[in-house]
C-alpha cells in the first residue's frame, strides 16, 4: 500500500513538473522538423516556373508514353535542380496512362561514380523484389547486357535521372558509362531510354566526350542561382510550415537570405542556416529566433564545412596546414612564400617526431589545399632579378581551423600553449 502510494507520488511529481516546464516553454518549432532538413522537397517550388515549364515542354511526349529528347540540366548546388526534376517526374508518373509502360529511375552518381556502380544500381532498381540482384563479381559488359535484357522484358520507355552526373566525368573518369547509356537506343528493339543528366558543374559539357555531348545535350535547362528576395520567399514558405507564428524576430529571414545570397544563391545553404539558427535559439531557451542566432549559425555552418573538408586530408597535409596557419598567425600575418611554409612545416614535423616530406611533395600539397579553398596561393612576378614566387595565405579563420586540426590529428595536440597574457604560443 505504502509502495503504490509513493509510486503514484513519483508519477504525479514528474507529471506536475513536466506540465509546469512545458507551459513555460514557448515552442519555436510546431510542425514536422524534417521540413527544416535540406533534403526535404516542399510541395511548392518558388521562383522556378521557367525551369519547370522548360522541363515539361521537353518531356511532354513522355506524358503520352512517347520518347522525348535526352536532357542536360545544370546549375550550381542548391539551385533546386534535384527538387524540380523529382517533382516533374512525379507529375509524369501520375499523369502518364498506366498502359504506356513509362518507368523512372533516379540514381545519385555521387554514391555510384564508376561504370560498374551505375549499371549495377540501375539494373537492381529495375529488377523486381523477387528477382536475383546483381552483386560485385560480374564484369562491366555482363552487367550492361543484364541491364539491356531487363529493359527489353520490362518497360517501353525508361526515364533515367543521373543526378550529380559530373561525378562520372570529372577527375580521371572516362565517362564511358555515359557513352554506353546514350547509345542504348541504337541497340534496344522493344524499349527506349531517355537520359536526364543533372550537373552541379556548369562546365560539364567541357568534360563530355563529343559524341556523348551531342546526344545528351540535345536539350538543356539552366538553373540560375537565387537572389536574396527569392531566397527570402523560399525561407518564409518553409518557416510558415514548421515554425510557431511569432518564432522569427523581425529581420531574421532577411539576414539568412542575405548571408546565403552573398555566397552563391544556394537555397540549401539558406535552409541549413535557418535550421541552425532555430537550434541556436532553442539551446538558449530564447523566445524568438533573432539575427544574432543567424550570426552564430553562420559561424557553425562555416565550421562544419571546414571540418568536413579537413577530416579527409592525409595526416602530413594536416600538419602542413597547421604549420602554415600557426606560422602566419604568429608572424605579421603576411602572405608566406612556399619556402617559408616549408620551413615552418619542417620545424613542426621535427618537433612531433616525424621525418619531413620533400619540398616537392609539400608544393603538391600546397596546391591541393589551394584547390580545396583552405588556403589561397597566388603566383607573384617580382621583376627580372627576383623571378616568380608563390605566396600563400590561409583562406579560413585561423583559430577555428587550428582547433579542428588538433581535434582530428592527435600528433598536433599540445603544440599550442596559452601564455600568461592568454595569447597562443606555439611550439
Ligand atoms: N524553388 C524552391 N522552392 C522551395 N525550396 C527549394 C527551392 N529550390 C530549392 N529548394 C530547397 O533547397 C534545397 C536544395 O535544393 P536541391 O534541389 O537539392 O538543389 P540542387 O539539386 O540544385 O543542389 C532543398 O531542400 C530544396 O527543397
Ligand atoms: Mg542536387
Structure description:
The protein has a 5-stranded parallel β-sheet, sandwiched between helices. The chain has a 3-stranded antiparallel β-sheet with strand order 6-8-7. A two-stranded antiparallel ribbon has the order 9-10. Helix 12 (267-283) crosses helix 13 and helix 14 (315-330) packs antiparallel against helix 18 (398-408). The model has no long low-confidence stretch (mean pLDDT 89). The chain contains 18 helices and 10 strands. The chain has 3 domains: 2-39 and 227-309, Orthogonal Bundle (Helicase, Ruva Protein, domain 3); 49-223, 3-Layer(aba) Sandwich (Rossmann fold); 312-426, Arc Repressor Mutant, subunit A (Orthogonal Bundle), CATH 1.10.10. With 427 residues, it is of the alpha/beta class. The radius of gyration is 28 Å and the shape is globular. 52% of the residues lie in helices and 13% in strands. Bound molecules: adenosine-5'-diphosphate and magnesium ion. Adenosine-5'-diphosphate is lined by residues 38, 40-42, 45-48, 75, 77-83, 234, 267-268, 271. Residues 81-82, 163 line the site of magnesium ion (MG).
Amino acid at each position: 500500500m505504502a509502495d503504490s502510494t509513493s509510486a503514484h507520488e513519483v508519477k504525479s511529481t514528474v507529471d506536475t513538473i513536466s506540465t509546469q516546464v512545458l507551459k513555460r516553454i514557448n515552442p519555436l518549432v510546431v510542425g514536422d522538423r524534417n521540413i527544416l532538413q535540406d533534403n526535404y522537397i516542399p510541395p511548392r517550388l518558388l521562383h522556378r516556373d521557367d525551369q519547370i515549364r522548360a522541363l515539361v515542354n521537353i518531356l511532354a511526349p513522355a506524358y503520352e508514353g512517347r520518347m522525348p529528347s535526352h536532357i542536360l540540366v545544370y546549375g550550381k548546388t542548391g539551385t533546386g535542380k534535384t527538387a524540380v526534376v523529382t517533382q516533374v517526374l512525379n507529375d509524369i508518373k501520375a499523369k502518364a496512362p498506366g498502359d504506356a509502360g513509362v518507368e523512372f529511375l533516379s540514381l545519385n552518381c555521387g554514391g555510384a561514380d564508376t561504370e560498374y556502380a551505375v549499371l549495377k544500381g540501375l539494373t537492381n532498381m529495375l529488377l523486381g523484389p523477387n528477382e536475383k540482384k546483381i552483386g560485385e563479381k560480374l564484369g562491366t559488359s555482363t552487367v550492361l547486357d543484364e541491364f539491356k535484357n531487363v529493359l527489353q522484358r520490362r518497360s517501353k520507355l525508361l526515364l533515367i535521372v543521373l543526378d550529380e552526373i559530373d561525378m562520372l566525368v570529372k577527375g580521371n573518369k572516362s565517362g564511358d558509362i555515359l557513352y554506353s547509356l546514350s547509345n542504348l537506343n541504337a541497340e534496344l528493339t522493344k524499349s527506349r531510354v531517355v537520359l536526364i543528366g543533372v550537373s552541379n558543374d556548369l562546365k560539364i559539357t567541357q568534360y563530355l566526350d563529343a559524341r556523348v555531348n551531342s546526344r545528351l545535350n540535345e536539350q538543356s535547362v539552366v538553373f540560375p542561382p537565387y537572389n536574396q528576395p527569392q531566397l527570402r520567399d523560399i525561407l518564409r514558405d518553409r518557416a510558415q510550415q514548421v515554425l510557431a507564428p511569432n518564432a522569427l524576430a523581425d529581420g531574421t529571414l532577411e539576414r539568412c537570405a542575405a548571408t546565403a545570397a552573398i555566397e552563391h544563391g544556394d537555397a540549401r545553404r539558406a535552409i541549413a542556416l535557418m535550421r541552425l539558427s532555430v537550434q541556436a535559439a532553442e539551446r538558449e531557451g530564447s523566445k524568438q529566433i533573432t539575427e544574432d542566432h543567424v550570426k552564430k549559425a553562420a559561424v557553425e555552418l562555416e565550421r562544419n564545412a571546414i571540418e568536413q573538408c579537413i577530416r579527409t586530408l592525409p595526416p602530413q597535409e594536416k600538419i602542413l596546414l597547421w604549420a602554415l596557419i600557426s606560422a602566419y598567425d604568429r608572424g605579421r600575418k603576411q602572405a608566406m612564400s612556399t619556402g617559408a611554409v616549408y620551413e615552418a612545416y619542417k620545424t613542426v614535423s621535427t618537433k612531433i617526431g616525424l621525418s619531413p616530406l620533400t619540398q616537392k611533395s609539400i608544393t603538391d600539397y600546397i596546391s591541393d589545399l589551394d584547390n580545396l579553398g583552405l588556403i589561397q596561393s597566388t603566383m607573384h612576378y617580382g621583376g627580372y632579378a627576383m623571378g616568380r614566387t608563390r605566396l600563400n595565405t590561409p583562406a579560413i579563420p585561423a583559430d577555428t581551423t587550428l582547433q579542428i586540426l588538433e581535434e582530428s590529428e592527435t600528433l598536433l595536440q599540445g603544440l599550442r600553449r596559452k601564455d600568461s597574457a592568454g595569447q597562443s604560443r606555439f611550439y
